[in-house]
Amino acid sequence: MCFPIFHAWLTLLFFRLCAVTLRSRPPLVYCASRTARTASLLSAAPQLTQRDETSLEKTNLVSSLSSSHVSDMSTKVAVVTGSNKGIGLSIVRALCKQYQGDVYLTARDTGRGQEAVESLSSEGLKAMFHQLDINDLNSITTAAAFFKDKYGGVDVLINNAGIAFKGGDDDIMSTLPPSLCLSLSSGADTTAFAIQAEVTLKTNFFATRDMLTHFLPIVKAGGRVVNVSSFVGARTLNQCSPDHQQRFRSEDITEEELVGMMQQFVDEAKRGEHKKGGWPDTAYGMSKTGLTTLSMIHARQLSKERPNDGILLNACCPGWVRTDMAGPKAPKSPDEGAITPVYLALLPPGATEPHGKFVSDKEVQPW
Ligand code: NDP
């Protein structure tokens, strides 16, 4: 007699248990788009309803999960050096609007970097942040390990960080018409040329090369690498001795030979003998001649060593841009300066060129 009642009670209990289990399960759709560890972190989040699931993408919970050190191999990632201000910041701004992936604003100073991230946030743009001082090898290797670990590498790398001494006989203005230089060179830096040569090449050439040494191996298939060089480097090339010019332009120059030439320029500048050695009087220009040549060497190496990976690597000039480096009289805004670097960073999948070129205003320039 009691059996039917007991059976009904058991059936009721079974359905209640099922309902509770289903309600407490993590959102399946969301977890499917995340890696296992993120999914398990999410499943630990209590009481998520279907509506929570839809709005999760926009909540702090998700931002903090995705910016923490959690592996996220399927997400594409772009990294921009020296991007707390100037052209670098504009590159990040443009990538935040156009790139389908995470965009990292990096800066040597964490405070300045985070301020820049917040300024973008006030424009409704979401950039991530990682500290990166290209003059500090430890900072470079830490960042490279972070991106390898979290994303399996990088998809876009823009080497933008750079320095220039202001207004002396050695900066961006040194190759502009004298009248224009005069109007711009108030507050000219009087640092000795030997020091300008050593300091400028240390950041613009040697430290950028360190970045490439540690990041090129983790650039993923289909990756894009952009080195922000300068038209000043192209003009400086023409002021070098014919022998130096021939080597910079040759197809068989090696990275080792190039590094030797750059070091020779610095050493001779320190002895006051650089002109005798066939080098012009501009450290900024020489640093960018070296960076463009290095880009061409690396592009040839990539074509040879990773022929099927479809990576495109180029150097570019942003144009003459109003920034702390170039001053207020330059014709282009920082956002306009970002156009060519961003164009190269977003060359579509399957594109085969430009590669190993010097590009300005989206056009390949003679070298
Ligand atoms: P800015 O001086 O405005 O910005 C330079 C950026 O590089 C800053 O964020 C600076 O950081 C950063 N930086 C400098 N040294 C390091 C380092 N060791 N590690 C990490 N970041 C560093 O210059 P621009 O925006 O004008 O220049 C950007 C790039 O464009 C440079 O490579 C420059 O040579 C090139 N360029 C610029 C032109 C122009 O007309 N402006 C023309 C042609 C090329 P911090 O704030 O900490 O100093």
Structural class: alpha/beta
For the biggest β-sheet, the strand order reads: 3-2-1-4-5-6-7-8
Our measurement of the CA-to-CA distance between the termini, rounded to an integer number of angstroms, reads 98 Å
Which hetero ligands occur in this complex?
Answer: NADPH dihydro-nicotinamide-adenine-dinucleotide phosphate
Which key terms come to mind for this protein?
binds NADPH dihydro-nicotinamide-adenine-dinucleotide phosphate, 367 residues, alpha/beta
Topology:
Blueprint: H1 3-23, H2 28-32, H3 36-43, H4 50-56, H5 60-67, E1 77-80, H6 86-98, E2 102-107, H7 110-122, E3 128-131, H8 137-151, E4 154-159, H9 178-184, H10 193-215, E5 219-228, H11 231-239, H12 242-249, H13 255-270, H14 283-305, E6 312-317, H15 334-337, H16 339-345, E7 358-360, E8 363-364
Parallel strand pairs: 1-2, 1-4, 2-3, 4-5, 5-6, 6-7
Antiparallel strand pairs: 7-8
Bound molecules: NADPH dihydro-nicotinamide-adenine-dinucleotide phosphate (NDP).
